[in-house]
Amino acid sequence: MRWVVADVGGTNTRMAFAQDGKLVTGSVQWFLNDDYPTFADVLVDFVQDAPVDGLCVAIAGPVMPGHVRLTNRDWSFDADQLSMVLGGAKVRIINDLAAVGHALPYLAPDAVVPVVPGRAAPGGQSLVVGIGTGFNVSLAHGNGVMLAEEGHTGLSIGVWRVLQDHLGEKAAAFETVEQVFSGSGLRALHLALGGVEMPSQQIVRDARLTMGVFVTALAALVRDMTFQFMPLGGIYFNGGLARAVVGLPETGEILAAARVQDMFEGTLSDIPMCVVVDDAAALAGCVACLERT
Questions:
Q1: By the 8 A CB rule, do 124 and 137 touch?
Q2: Are residues 191 and 80 part of one domain?
Q3: What is the mean pLDDT of residues 168-172?
Q4: Rg of the chain over CA atoms, in angstroms?
Q5: Which family does it belong to (predicted)?
Q6: Same domain for 149 and 210?
Q7: Alpha helix (H) ranges present in the chain?
Q8: Which residues of 76-104 are buried (b: 16+ CB within 10 A; e: fewer)?
């Protein structure tokens, strides 16, 4: 069986072939979404008329029955349409963070880097926290992954207090999780703190005040999500901005200091946190989904 797997983000699309339940070595390709009017055009460009038995697409956005629409790009498509493009191949569409959740059991040891040490509970559920162009989470347990759109939820009181302490009345401009914890959110936070317009990666590298506030707010968010999701199997950060932020020397210390202590027999104080550094993680999750269908 020859499959195509795709990870469609707001800016780029990664695609690869898979065979016998594994990614085909050397087949991963990157595409700049701005170069294509639709995802179907990217698919045609990648496949180049090669016979395909199945397709799994991980998208940055909610997967609705019958169709999907990206939250960070004006692209929409459905499984039937993509099946026709591939000559009747089986098609499955999943959320990109759900794909990373499916991939967790299959990631190589060097695909993750520890951020906060701890001890994962055997059989415990794991939380994937995606911070990039947008924000979302997925909760993985065994072969199952819970769907979510956490980025559109309102800010918790813990995060709000961090923002209010540093921004005062300007904190009112930040209402949802994604309005803070995303590339655009980081840039807006930097401006609200009196900084000048600059790319997210430059803010991470050069703006110590902004990053201090951002990481402190992130620690408050992670603490709240610990109660929400009870991720005794560990917390996995994923996404370009997540890798940059949790790679800062102080991030691990701040996250560790904010962990829940002395509750539920101490289990929440020992949750490990790490960052996924494998760009192909979502693709591996797509392969796992096709294997199970």
A1: no
A2: no
A3: 96
A4: 19
A5: Belongs to the bacterial glucokinase family.
A6: yes
A7: 39-47, 79-85, 96-103, 157-167, 183-192, 200-206, 208-229, 240-246, 249-257, 281-291
A8: ebebeebeebbeebbbbbbbbbbbbbbbb
CB 50 within 8 A of CB 4: no
Q: What DSSP element (H or E) covers 238? A: strand 234-238
Instruction: Tell me the whole-structure pTM to 2 decimals.
Output: 0.90
Structural domain including 31 reads 2-102+280-291
* CA dist., res. 286 & res. 50, Å (int): 19
Burial of 12 per CB tally in 10 Å (0-12, 13-18, 19+): middle
Residue type, 5: V
| Domain total of the chain | 2
Residues 244 and 242: their CA atoms lie apart, in Å, by 5
What pLDDT is recorded for position 60?
80
The amino acid that residue 84 corresponds to is: M
> 92 and 162 share a domain?
no
CATH number at residue 85: 3.30.420.40
